[in-house]
Records
---
Amino acid sequence: ERLILGADVSPQPLAQPPGPGVEAGKGLEMRKLVLSGFLASEEIYINQLEAFTGYALGPSSPLATATTSQPVLTIQQIETIFYKIQDIYEIHKEFYDNLCPKVQQWDSQVTMGHLFQKLASQLGVYKAFVDNYKVALETAEKCSQSNNQFQKISEELKVKGPKDSKDSHTSVTMEALLYKPIDRVTRSTLVLHDLLKHTPVDHPDYPLLQDALRISQNFLSSINEDIDPRRTAVTTPKGETRQLVKDGFLVEVSESSRKLRHVFLFTDVLLCAKLKKTSAGKHQQYDCKWYIPLADLVFPSPEESEASPQVHPFPDHELEDMKMKISALKSEIQKEKANKGQSRAIERLKKKMFENEFLLLLNSPTIPFRIHSRNGKSYLFLLSSDYERSEWREAIQKLQKKDLQAFVLSSVELQVLTGSCFKLRTVHNIPVTSNKDDDESPGLYGFLHVIVHSAKGFKQSANLYCTLEVDSFGYFVSKAKTRVFRDTTEPKWDEEFEIELEGSQSLRILCYDKCYDKTKVNKDNNEIVDKIMGKGQIQLDPQTVETKNWHTDVIEMNGIKVEFSMKFTSRDMSLKRTPSKKQTGVFGVKISVVTKRERSKVPYIVRQCVEEVEKRGIEEVGIYRISGVATDIQALKAVFDANNKDILLMLSDMDINAIAGTLKLYFRELPEPLLTDRLYPAFMEGIGAAPGDLRAGWG
């Protein structure tokens, strides 16, 4: 884990470009699309730097008062906090001014690789900024605590909006602005990847972009190697160094209720904390709920662990209601912004959205993550992603390989350690979409079609299957699962899934060895006793997936390679309803026509699917959420359309997620939606109504 660079910035192999002359027109268009998007974000970035330098050097700035009898900041503090910001601003302003006219007059003769090469050659300025970053942040925090005037300004710096934006200004904290240059290098490197992907090898820009990418990757690698460990560490009262390795928000089950905690993994201790409630303007602090030295920490196996304490589970329909409310509130916020609505109204809607997202984050996780201390105490977290649980377990087990000693922290040591958490944390906000900056990608909305083809690289035969996870509403959830391919080293699944995306940015694939050992008692329905053989993640790049064609890729994980294909259908396209040309089936046919033909009030397909789900699917985790295999769903669709006499036999043998998926497909293909166009606005208004009393999750 890195304090400075949170994103995965390790060098990646260069994307394969199109060959000479191949799809020249399409490549030209794609390069312009990539550059246009990059220019828009570059304008926002320059405005942010300008706000920073404007505050530092303007007529009423700290610099102007530094030599007066009542300075806001000393000259040394100014030089520390604003170090290299002016230089970075000038570099990017020149880059933007040179690139902008080239994109505006875009054609096959335009070249811009030399601009990116020059930008990459100036990364030494960023190196100096990064080396000073932690000191600048600490200095700004100390100045905020000691100077109310500086604190007030640093919590609400005004940033000019883009030229075509209806918002003239936005407010950003100084802490957020200080992080922007670090984040920018990573984003620029990803843009170079995209440009190379769409640039022919014989294009004059290609070697220049390649050189810029190589310089950027080497720079990012050197930063990761050169980061001073003390920057992610706290010094104990005994003079020893305790380094932060990983931190994040997890849901803990405490006294039979769910509580959101911030968990910190140091080199020798795991600490569970919550943010103290403080009055406005006061410095935030953490309160330690408990800690376990890693020498005393053990993971109980499923058969050894006790069944989870009774926690009131949130019914699935209530979770779905929350998601609909969040979606409705997002739409309202966009409308208000488009109509230049009052900022108070927008803030009120954002607050309501945060409350619903927080409740969803708190109540949706179901995968148990147990931690046991040798002194007899046990703790239970609930996670929504097995990928995340695996990351925490692996990080702890890696540290436990060192020669660790048991210890007890004194009250002073615990106070120092807990006090350091606020400064050292790498995860600053709870993972909800309402915490995203306006310039961050909103993610993809629609349906991702994924075919999991095969895997190779296993050293010995196993019972292998894969699961797919995507991020929805800010956190990851499992969305699909292949069948088990037994006793093999080269499974060939070739299974297709349709996964709904809700602001999604990443796809994760986990490969498991299925456990058939009945002695491994499963005390929790949500416990996964199968062994993870490998796991990997890819970014869902809109420019790659938003094409109508299938895109084939490979995820590498621990020497294992999983091949898959995917294509994306936007929400707008998926909502287009085309009535069936033949009226003999049930899919794409009006409900009134089907019920009249069947002489019933509810279509036969609805009755049979619901009955089968109630019979076999009530205990299934993720029913109606986890995707069924697309070929199974299509087979059921054909049988229902043909009114085949073997329907019941086929239903009883079919995977329950495929049956749930068939029912969802039936509703989606109706010529008109169940919630009619006339009544839909009233429905959305009801969904957006203020929720009742929110359950306390921070206690």
---
Amino acid sequence: MLQRLRWQIAIPFVLLILGMIVGYGLLSGRFPLTTGSYLLIGIFGALAATGLAYLVSERITHSVKELTSLTRDLRKDQADLWAAFESFTELEELALAIKVAHDQLNLQVEDLESERSQLAAILFEMSDGVIIVDGKGNVQLINPAVRSFFEINEERLLGKSLIETFRHHQLVEIWQRCFETGQSQVVVLDFVARKLYLQCVATPLGNTQPQNILLLLTDLTRLRHLETIRQDFIHNISHELRTPLASLKALTETLLEGAMEDPPAARKFLQSMETEVDALSLMVSELLELSRIESGRVPLKLQPSSPCELLTKVVERLSLQSERAGLTLATHCDPEITPILADPSRMEQVLVNLLHNAIKFTPEGGRIDLFASQEGEAVLFSIQDTGAGIPASDLNRIFERFYKTDRARRSGGTGLGLAISRHLVEAHGGKIWAESVEGQGSTFFFTVPTTQ
């Protein structure tokens, strides 16, 4: 191309010079030159014109060649590159146009790279899973949430078929329905063994043919768990309210049917009604307390507290009750034990709940021991009784709200005390559990961090 450009510049230039020389010689008549002289002048003029044309064309073609070389590397934003462009005075407008195009291209590339980085960051940080499947059913894109849900590696996914990669018939079916109908589809994927529930929304992407499909996966496991808790709560509270309300209704009907005429009987019925109302009031009070604790609306007034003093206060508080039950109470605590960082009133509430249960389920003549011992950076509290014990099947559930063993149901109570204790201990950064052998007593443990 450059060689052709040289000739296109040189030939007209030479012809112009020759024409001017010959024309001038023929018309002037002032110089009596021979034919040979004209020929020499023509040759000399042609050579001069050719040389001048070559220099001009070389200058221009060199600039074009340099521009061509530089524009091949437009992506590089180098100062020396643009300094070179500024030197092309013969092609100043072309160089300026190329520089403007370069700047615009760079801005567009930067915008695209910024958007790409933002999209990648969003996909990486999303808690929802994202899968893009092409029209052939092959996986084109996933994010880390998908790998977590399905416990698989990204290398195993990309480029392979959806059914081969995930082996989940519901996922494949929703993709097929969306692909065939061109409409969004929704389904809940059940992973029963892992207790995992994912909502999958399949949506067509753009107007590509064959059409790509976006699969958006949202973890519903916690919502399902909360829904189960809500249903259990409604069931339990209905059951717990039914008994005292039925008792109150029966007592009221008995009084209305004539028991009021018998003062001793009426008094007995009224006392029973008072007992049922007290039980209902206690249940409502403990429910409100548990709700406040679970929602974090009960502030803890943390301060250094002596484990030994806490045990002593609790024993003194329930000593009369234990004496009436014919039980022996004893505390075991090293006076030099490290103080715990706790809300004393809340820790006392936990200990009272546990000791009260021990007194309730330990037969007359039994013994209850309270311990506090150093366990690393925490203090381990334990309450050991010689009661009837707890069945192994109930040990993992006794800290649930309203849960009662068969023996606990017969002895009354709201079934909320241990749930409250668990939340209070966990709010202090500790943990609580129980060990028991049926017929040989039970031991309840909980830990609380120390001040160190």
---
Amino acid sequence: MTLLHALVGFALVVGVLTLVPGIDTALVLRSALTRSRGNALATVLGVSTGIVVWGAAAGVGATAVLAASRTAYRLLTLAGALYLMGMGATMLWRSWPGRAQAAEPERAGGTSHDAVVEAGALAAEGAPADSAWRGWWTGALTNLLNPKVCVFFLATIPQFMVTGVPPLAMGVLLALVHAALCTAWLGLIALGAGWAGPRPGSSAVVRWTDRVTGGVLLAFGGRLALQARA
């Protein structure tokens, strides 16, 4: 297999998977509808950053080590489950009418508990709700804490290795292909959905977007938690 054949073949595989809606799609839609196109695009770049990190890890065999260690994989799964469930619960809590009005000043100042849950680090705690940094961190952390991404790269990257190309370089190249497709598709979603919000008087859209996205994150996180216990 030549390098070109490997890159094209991998692009065909991940291209189809990229079109399937998932957690990343839900987060980008939520950012575009409730915050800004800039925040949504930053979230897209964060997701792509996570993809590249996972690709590099797969290239050097880190994902194989993680998958081989039941304890390590359980810890990653549990961390991802708690993160998603915490973010989903916060969205649902903030979406109820009484909390929605109280949250308006927090959205402007970025000092709410939502900042801690979504960012996962003190560095993002003081950032405005629609800041690019906060969007990037949310996208990256969500992707990096998703064990399904680890399993995907563990299963696919070795199939597209090319003789003569260092594993780390090949892993990064394949991940860059995936990241480029992901950025293009999710970027289109962010730009398209961004035209619908946020606008003055669109608090109902914001509330229902948070409810739907929060429910999706809670359900996905709950399923991960059950897998961690299995």
---
Amino acid sequence: LGSWVLMAQFVPVQGSQSTAVSPPLVEILSDPQFYEEVANPRLTSRNEVEERVTEYEELLEEINALKASPRLERDGELKAKAEQAARLLARFLDFARDTPGRNLVYAGDELVIQVPLDLDQNSRQQAVERIQVAHARMLKKWRAHIKLGLPPGFIFVKLYESRERMAGDYKLGPETAGVAFPCRYIAVALPSQESAFWGRMKQYFIGEEFQQTVAHEFVHSSCFMTLGYQRAGELPRWFMEGFALHFSGERHVRTAIEGPGGLTIRDFDSTEEYRDFKRLFQFVLEKYGPDRLYDFARRSLEQGSVHQSLPQVLNLANEPALIGTSVSWRRDKERFQWRWILMAACLVTVVFVVFRGRWAGLRWVTAFFIIWAAMARAALSPYYIHTLLWWVPAMFSLPLVYLILRAVRQPRAPEPTRIRLVVASDWPRLDEVMDPWPYEQVNLAEIIQAGLEEGWGWGEREIIGSEAQRLKAFLDSQSTDFFYFQGHAYRVWYEGLGTITTGNKSEAAAQPDG
């Protein structure tokens, strides 16, 4: 490039006031490799950056002079190339040299960060550290999963103290947090808030959100470096945004592609299209698993197209097939979810209705088991087999085992097989209810008559066996102890007398109950 700069000289054409460009400059502008080297410079030291800045400053002056010549008005193709070259050179100089109010920070061997001087020292240090951490994590994940080598050289990061300032420089929306330019240029704004507590003071929030935004832009930059400048715009939008969202784990704001026609801002915020991009990669992850997702991304980046990687990796013919399969998959998944949710809810309801009496203690452990089984079935289904849902039943397995053992080993009070049924003649208060007595074989009138003959104000009868259990369960389930029988009102309750035992075991002591 240095020789190109020295050879790109203008010479006057005899008999004309216009200026002609010498062949070397035309050759430079006609060489696709020139644009690749400007957009994707592989500079590995401060000296190389400074030398390239000097060379590009001279070359930009020559191209600007060429743009002012009348010849370019007659040669539209050359004019477009000159404008594209000038734009790329200006982009490099914008990121790679000190400017008024800014200085460069060489952070390790892979990052050059342009930091505003009016940023306080603490915020500056935090921002640089967050950028380094985001790049290191992204690079580690890229090498582990994508397994594509990235060309060596610095990535240039321009840090802004506010989104408004960055939006003004690049004509972005006021909510834009970061933007990536092919292939190695990233601009990112610090989240901040004006505070009037101690005068007009700006407070910066350099935390996880900022780091995730930077990581997202690093994913774009890595894709650009892998594709190269000439192919940077060939992959579809849904791939570039969906992959960056998935790989960085961050909800993205915008990205930028710079081609022969200039800077194109692709804004997907709060749009259905943007959400569809995210759903497509989520669908690939859930249906095919992370290994095939990364294989699909790797082949798409290698080939610069999804038309071959879709049938090769996902067995889908084209993008419409991917979209259609994704929509039907999501619909079937929602049906599967509701079916199992309703089934589990119905079974739990049945358990709480049916498990009464001596089985009431098993209600909660049985309901817990039903919910656990439903989650385990869902985790093993094709809709969740590649997700982390299996962690949920796995974590609840030990509590479930504990509840089962506790329910099995917990001593239960023996059900009484002998009760003393007590009957008194009484009328309920106006606010109390009275139900009919359903057991004709247990004649309340006879029981109380026997008690009156003994001189009592009530009657009682000892009942044993299954009939005692049935009466006890009935009385326990009633909301009142007043009953209507043969034209009279009675108050009925019982007292437990224990259990009947056989062999050498003695009869259990009588326990008051009911």
